[in-house]
Amino acid sequence: MRWTHLLAVGALSASLAACTTSPTGRSQLTLMSDEQLDQMGAQAFAQYQQELPTVGGAPLRYVQCVTGAVVRALPERERNQNWQVKVFQSEQANAFALPGGYVGINTGLLNVAQNQDQLAAVIGHEIAHVLARHANERASTQSATQLGLSVISSASGMQGAGGETMMAALGMGAQYGIMLPFSRRHESEADTLGLYLMAEAGFDPRASIALWNNMEGGARPPAWASTHPSHGQRIGGLEASMGEAMSRYERARNAGRTPNCPRP
Q: Where would I find the Peptidase M48 domain in this sequence (predicted)?
């Protein structure tokens, strides 16, 4: 029991030492270094390229053009990374950005994003996840949660079928009480940060609402059991931030940031 308490105290001390702040001022738990995250991003990007064929030509130039404009609006550290952009042949309307400077867009998404502004909304959202260090926070929270469950199991002497049942219940509590709400929080934060990014790059932030309306459809789990906000929650969050986004958009346009990325 004493060793269990020491383990818990050590984990708490490490967690407190690793608290940082997101770009929106929210407290974060980040246990991993930027170097570790960049390496993981490179590995994930390489794996994705092994699993799906890439597309070049006009689609790639289009995505590179929009991504380049968004990247130029980033803070210096992120802006100066050697960003790599790939377009993948897949009907799934998916996109991602990874630590280390990697962006991937599926061809299916190009059918949903109807113009450069809507595509910028997606790319801004995905890069915002990187900017806010969400991958670090997710991995750190999962690690701390697993350690906490192990400590509870050891301290309570949960053994046998009854103990396994209780641990399964604790795991579900962690899933719905910690991991999924955290993901929804990340998505909402990335919506806001991505909206500001696309506006500062010179893309019309109003296109973000049109984009998410394009993507609406199909059955969804209830908001409390989903890794993403509901459609209404997402649109409401975008609308609440639109005034600030439009101010940034006007300043960007007045400063000469007027992207022109022809859609293939």
A: 62-239
Detail the DSSP E strand segments found in 80-215.
84-88, 95-98, 102-106
Query: In this structure, is residue 125 part of a structural domain?
Result: yes
- Three-state DSSP class for residue 258: coil
126 catalytic, yes or no? yes
CB 256 within 8 A of CB 205: no
State both tokens at 127: 């890069």
| Per annotation, catalytic residue among 51, 126, 137, 216 | 126
Considering its fold, how many domains does the chain have in total? 1
Which of 45, 20, 54, 31 has the alpha carbon at shortest distance from 100?
A: 45
Identify whether the C-beta of residue 132 lies closer than 8 Å to the C-beta of residue 194. no
Residue 264 falls within a domain, yes or no? Answer: no
The answer to whether position 259 is within a domain reads no
Residue 85 lies in domain? 16-254
pLDDT one digit per residue (tens) for the chain, 264 residues:
333 333 343 444 444 445 677 676 666 666 667 788 788 888 889 998 999 999 999 999 999 999 999 999 999 988 898 899 999 999 999 899 988 999 999 999 999 999 999 999 999 999 998 888 877 777 766 765 555 445 444 544 444 444 454 444 444 454 444 444 457 777 888 899 999 999 999 999 999 999 988 887 555 545 544 566 777 888 898 999 999 999 999 999 999 999 999 999
Residue 261 lies in a domain: no
SS3 85: strand
- Dihedral sign of CA atoms 18, 36, 106, 126 in order: positive
